[in-house]
């Protein structure tokens, strides 16, 4: 088959290190009948070992040439190729107990993680290769410099674990950054939940728009009795836990803000 020129606009950095590929597949540990969906299969580095361990694998690939190669390479009854932009994919159509995996295109990682939040109910787990720095933001705790909107929005929905780092040399072409693999498991229905997801996500976005300012200044046009909410008047967004944000969002909903 003709050599494929990596396309920068699709964030194409292909995994070439067999030991990294093996570690990712071991971390996923698929059983034959698991419903696995791979995002961005590219030149099949993960697709081959995954497909070998599964009765069926679904993949989502935006690059027309790569999608055509995949269709040629694998039998249609064992691999379904969805040629699509993953940001527009309705994962509800794949059913439930989904296991979503991928060495993700780094240029869309945040929008993609937010897109997937809406399908968390259908998901059993997610294993992703991402920029190490993005994973640090996902798992950061209140008070840490990496703690921000991504941490709060994802920690409200998933239990997340940074599994291992992957150096640039494991890819062709090598990215400029160090990568890492994260496991994300949706929290159960008994998790603390905001009364309004919309109010919660708007509050978090607004609170972190000026993270160094005191919250009472960032939210100055809302009447908030901080003592009643149980948050210090001088607190900054970076000090609030997920539970604090949920309480504050619920308070604002109750106030009709
Ligand atoms: N999985 C392969 C590997 O590990 O070698 C390729 C990983 S490469 C970092 C990212 C892959 O995602 C590429 O195949 C790229 O074409 C695909 N991709 C980029 N943007 C996408 C999008 N919006 N929707 C679906 N696939 C996308």
Short synopsis of the structure:
This is Ribosomal RNA small subunit methyltransferase A. The protein has helices spanning 18-28, 47-53, 64-73, 109-117, 132-139, 149-155, 197-207, 215-218, 226-229, 242-254, and strands at 14-15, 35-39, 57-61, 79-83, 98-103, 123-131, 158-166, 171-172, 179-186. The chain has 10 helices and 9 strands.
Q: What is the fold named in CATH at topology level of the largest domain?
A: Rossmann fold
β-strand number? 9
Which strand order do you get reading across the main beta sheet?
A: 4-3-2-5-6-9-7
Which range best describes the helical content: under 10%, 10-25%, 25-40%, 40-55%, 55-70% or over 70%?
25-40%
- Shape, per Cα inertia axes: elongated
End-to-end gap: 60 Å
Largest sheet: 7 strands, mixed
Radius of gyration over all CA atoms, rounded: 20 Å
Level-2 CATH architecture of the largest domain = 3-Layer(aba) Sandwich
CATH superfamily of the largest domain: Vaccinia Virus protein VP39
Low-confidence stretches: none
Q: What's the number of helices?
A: 10
CATH C-level class of the largest domain is: Alpha Beta
What is the total domain count? 2
- The secondary-structure class comes to alpha/beta
Overall description:
- The structure is a single chain.
- With 257 residues, this protein is of the alpha/beta class.
- The protein folds into two domains: 8-186, 3-Layer(aba) Sandwich (Rossmann fold); 197-255, rRNA adenine dimethylase, C-terminal domain (Helicase, Ruva Protein, domain 3).
- It is 33% helix and 20% strand.
- The protein contains ten helices and nine strands.
- The strands form two sheets. It has a seven-stranded mixed sheet with strand order 4-3-2-5-6-9-7. Strands 1-8 form a two-stranded antiparallel ribbon.
- Strand 3, helix 3 (64-73) and strand 4 form a beta-alpha-beta unit.
- It is elongated and about 65 Å long.
- The model has no long low-confidence stretch (mean pLDDT 96).
- The structure holds S-adenosylmethionine.
